[in-house]
């Protein structure tokens, strides 16, 4: 019995050691001059029009422009606010299906689930110990979100920009596609990389922002606010899987103004200008061309023209999403394979970080 217990204990310790080992083959360190693109998206289920035009469409193009591109479904960021566990699991798979349907190709980029690569949170802790509390409290997103939550928001909500920095730096990323509202967070990423380098020697590249060409897509019901899935007005946001009937109804109800002519004047005619911007983006037109296409129309007719353009753009994507959602095992395999590829890149970076910091 004693010998059996010893064997069991040895087997247990072997299993534990295996869990703590990195990849069986440690990749070579990143060579100087290698460009890596990283970006993440929260698993909010199916993306909306703003997500697509503001981020996903540019992600697809970046796959052709850079040799190493990583796209992460950042599930750890999503739990900074309360989540229903079953809904979160489904949302991760739905977002995976949506990204694949939109053109993210696992053979050209690495699509993975953030929580499956522990180096993100490990590096985040080291970086958290290097940033001062007031630095995080001054970030505008903390102020805005904390104001909407009781008890001034959670610690996770306060420190998630540091995790965001770790997401980027654990791959020694050189470029990050971001929207205008993320510029301040990118400054924090660069500051943390700079601070680490000053303390431990040149190690992290200072990642550069790739600003998306599309400005924020505005709410269809309130053109002073950006389109958001959390908007309580269901007519405000267009999902990429909305039916043609739903899309027409939402654009028909879109807020414009009392002038019937179609023009692009964002400062004075925000609603109509939002219609023009959406029309141009989904049709591949310039803003001037979109305005000319609405010549002679009143805004009511023009809104239906924009709705038709959106329907045409999303029809094949919607069909592909529905097909992919039926095969959950395939979606899980995509994420597991992507997470393994991501870990091969993150593991040697974090091992070097540990040595520099003094961790055995």
Descriptive report:
The structure is a single chain. This protein is mainly alpha-helical. It has 14 helices and five strands. The chain has helices at residues 2-20, 49-65, 75-78, 85-102, 119-128, 133-137, 140-148, 155-169, 183-200, 244-252, 270-283, 287-293, 299-325, 328-357, and strands at residues 36-41, 68-73, 110-113, 175-178, 208-211. It has a three-stranded parallel β-sheet. A two-stranded parallel sheet has the order 4-5. Strand 1, helix 2 (49-65) and strand 2 (68-73) form a beta-alpha-beta unit. Helix 5 (119-128) packs parallel to helix 14. It is globular, with a radius of gyration of 23 Å.
List keywords for this structure.
360 residues, mainly alpha, three-stranded parallel β-sheet, two-stranded parallel sheet, disordered N terminus
């Amino acid at each position: 019995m004693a010998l059996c217990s010893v064997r069991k204990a040895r087997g247990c310790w072997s299993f534990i050691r295996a869990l703590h080992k990195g990849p069986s083959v440690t990749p070579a360190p990143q060579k100087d001059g290698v460009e890596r693109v990283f970006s993440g998206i929260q698993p909010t289920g199916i993306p909306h029009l703003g997500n697509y035009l503001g981020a996903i469409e540019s992600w697809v193009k970046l796959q052709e422009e850079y040799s190493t591109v990583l796209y992460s479904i950042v599930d750890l960021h999503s739990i900074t606010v309360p989540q229903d566990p079953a809904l979160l699991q489904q949302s991760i798979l739905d977002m995976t299906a949506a990204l694949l349907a939109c053109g993210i190709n696992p053979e050209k980029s690495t699509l993975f689930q953030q929580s499956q690569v522990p180096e993100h949170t490990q590096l985040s802790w080291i970086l958290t110990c290097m940033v001062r509390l007031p630095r995080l409290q001054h970030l505008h997103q903390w102020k805005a979100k904390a104001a909407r939550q009781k008890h001034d928001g959670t610690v996770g909500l306060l420190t998630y920009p540091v995790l965001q920095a770790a997401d980027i730096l654990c791959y020694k990323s050189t470029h990050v596609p971001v929207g205008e509202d993320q510029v301040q967070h990118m400054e924090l990423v660069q500051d943390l990389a700079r601070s680490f380098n000053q303390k431990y020697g040149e190690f992290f590249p200072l990642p550069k922002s790739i600003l998306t060409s599309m400005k924020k897509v505005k709410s269809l019901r309130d053109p002073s606010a950006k389109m958001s899935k959390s908007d309580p007005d269901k007519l405000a946001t267009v999902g990429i899987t909305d039916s043609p009937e739903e899309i027409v109804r939402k654009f028909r109800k879109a807020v414009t103004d009392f002038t019937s002519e179609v023009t692009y004047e964002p400062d004075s005619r925000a609603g109509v200008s939002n219609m023009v911007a959406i029309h141009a983006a989904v049709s591949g037109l310039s803003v001037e061309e979109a305005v000319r296409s609405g010549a002679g129309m009143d805004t009511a007719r023009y809104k239906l023209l924009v709705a038709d353009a959106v329907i045409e753009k999303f029809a094949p994507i919607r069909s592909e999403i529905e097909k992919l959602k039926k095969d959950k095992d395939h979606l899980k395999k995509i994420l597991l394979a992507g997470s393994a590829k991501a870990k091969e890149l993150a593991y040697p970076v974090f091992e070097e970080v540990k040595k520099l910091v003094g961790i055995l």
